[in-house]
Amino acid sequence: MTLSFGVFLLISSVFCCCAHAGCGVVTRQQWDGLDPTQVEYLPRPLGLVVVQHTATPACDTDAACVELVQNIQTNHMDVLKFWDIGPNFLIGGNGKVYEGPGWLHVGAHTYGYNRKSIGISFIGNFNAKTPTKAALDAAEALLKCGVREGHLSRSYAVVGHRQLIATESPGRKLYQIIRRWPNYLEDIDKIKNNK
């Protein structure tokens, strides 16, 4: 009886972990992330994905990517006073996606758009170099899974961070790539915040 209950707990914890992050994402527990200081839920399905870069060094190993994600979270929470790490997801050169606020919670990636979009940040600076094929493939798989799981609408739009605020993000090379993605939105007049 104890064994059955133990197996039940194990299966339950795996299910809860997958239901929260899903899509093959490295959960915040797996990268040893800090708990957010506050949580606000996103409406779903969302129709906007903002692609950016971290403007940090890149990473191509699991250990290096975890260390960078932890450092970014520490900076965002301790220095910038965010509730959590800013982007909903971060993608390393190793082809792994790291959970930030995830599919369910508001991130802090693009001022004025956090409550109506998912922010995906590629780890590195992509002004002069392109992300790895593994990272680009991981982004594509994440977006497809987001639609399949009901987090993103089937008609979601992808924009570059620079289209919404004054920044170089997602970097010149990455921006050239996302402009060729099928869901890329060139004309942002309908989604642009009017201030």
From TrEMBL:
Could you tell me which cysteines form disulfide bridges? Answer: C23-C145, C59-C65
Classification via Pfam families: Amidase_2 (PF01510)
- Report a single Gene Ontology molecular function: N-acetylmuramoyl-L-alanine amidase activity
Give every N-acetylmuramoyl-L-alanine amidase domain span. 34-171
Q: Where is the Peptidoglycan recognition protein family domain?
A: 23-165
Write the signal peptide boundaries. Answer: 1-21
Q: Which domain of life is it from?
A: Eukaryota
One GO term of the biological process aspect: innate immune response
Keywords, A to Z, come to: Disulfide bond, Immunity, Innate immunity, Signal
Similarity comment: family membership: Belongs to the N-acetylmuramoyl-L-alanine amidase 2 family.
- Subunit note: Monomer.
The name of this protein is: Peptidoglycan-recognition protein
**Origin organism of this chain?**
Plutella xylostella
